[in-house]
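pasting for the record
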Amino acid sequence: MAAAAAAMTPSEAASVFLEAWATREWIIDPERYPQAPKDVAALYETYREIQIHPIAAELGGHGGYKIGAVGALGEPCLYAPLFRNFFLEAPDQNPSAASCQIHQVEPEFGILMGRDLPARADGEPHSVEDVWAAVDSVVLCIEYCGRRASTEVVAAQEPLGKMADILSAGGVVMGPRLPAVDTDPLSLTECATALAVNGAEVCQGAGSKCPDGGPVQALTYLANHLNGRGLLIEKGQLVVTGATCITRDFKIGDTVSATFSGLGLVQTTIGP
């Protein structure tokens, strides 16, 4: 395994990752890459410092969360912050590969919050029904994953070290919006998805691939886990609820299309 830097505080690690992203001076020296957090709790401390760090404002500020890594590190899933400058509206805005070293794309159900979701006054966890009542709309999305370091440096890290790089956060291409009042949350779980590159299908999935078995279930996990940390999902934030399938088989100039059966289509072109 490549050499790693001396242990850093979560705030110091946040600075390294965010400075690399904001300047696009990617981490190519393994000694510059922060040492892995000691455990999952320390990983979440790093994410918290990332989302409140002053440099986050240069990325548009904290705009929501991505959920992923199902079963990783003994957890049901993990989640990390997303930033508003990387929320793009299809079809007019396309992601830049250079903006975050895009290396993977995924069709995902995004959920836009209509109100804050603080902890319940009675101390009980939120139910799926509680959480759905706080949703404004479902957004059909393509998540594009990024990294702040070279492929070689990332590959040399232990699992917690890999995850510390904001869970491969990049951004989200947002397509059609479905008002929550007109949407059956069960239909999201049952919805088949597919991803195509230049018209050729490369993977298939379904809403049931999301953590805890569906997009709203994944959102419920996030809400309760955040509340357990003294945090909350806020009104106006976007949560992408986990990959329904993935591909890394694309290049600059390719057109990527995500189909959500019976609900709609999102299409984007990977820019330089």
